Amino acid sequence: MTNDERFQAIFQLYESEHGYAPCRTREVVEWAVGKNLLPMPPPVDPYEVLAGRMSKALAQEFETHEGRRYRVNHAVRATKNGKQQSFWAIMGFAPHAHMERAFAQRREHIVAECVQLDTDVAVYNTMNEGKHPEIQMILDFTEDVAERRQ
């Protein structure tokens, strides 16, 4: 069983014991540790904590150029020495290849999210056929993008 599968099984158990009501993962983790289903994690590397905070801050930095608000910092994910890492650069100084890859990775992430959303909605509609009106999901964002640009 992978770590993800273990967490999923613990969540299923928690939900079955607590009536399948929406809950916070913090509640589930506290319950699981209390039942010895999960060990307490090792101490956190403070540099990793700070690096995570920095990544979040970098992703939230915006400036305006010719009236258009844009994200300043862009990351490229790459595997180096067997470990996935993010390499950040400032748009105005980043090599062209870095920006191409950063934009392509962001687009792929969006496409993957849309495919999964479409699947989730279809499965929900099938599971609830006749119980509720079908949920319709439009994945063509052309109008949304045009509307937000104004």
Word description of this protein:
The chain has 150 residues and is an alpha+beta fold. 53% of the residues lie in helices and 16% in strands. It is built from five helices and four strands. It has helices at 3-17, 25-34, 46-59, 96-127, 142-149; strands spanning 62-65, 68-71, 73-80, 83-90. The strands form two sheets. The chain has a two-stranded antiparallel sheet. Strand 3 (73-80) and strand 4 form a beta hairpin. The protein starts with a helix and ends with a helix. The model has no long low-confidence stretch (mean pLDDT 95).
What's the gist of this structure?
The chain is of the alpha+beta class. It is built from 5 helices and 4 strands, in the order αααββββαα.
Task: Provide a count of the helices.
Answer: 5
General form: flat
Strand content: 15-25%
Integer-rounded radius of gyration: 21 Å
Biggest pleated sheet? 2 strands, antiparallel
Q: Assign the structural class, choosing from mainly alpha, mainly beta, alpha/beta, alpha+beta, or little secondary structure.
A: alpha+beta
Strands of the widest sheet, in order across it, are 1-2
> Strand-and-helix sequence, N→C?
HHHEEEEHH
Low-confidence stretches: none
Q: What is the residue-averaged pLDDT? A: 95
Please give the alpha-carbon distance between the first and last residues: 50 Å
Helix content: 40-55%
- The beta-strand count equals 4
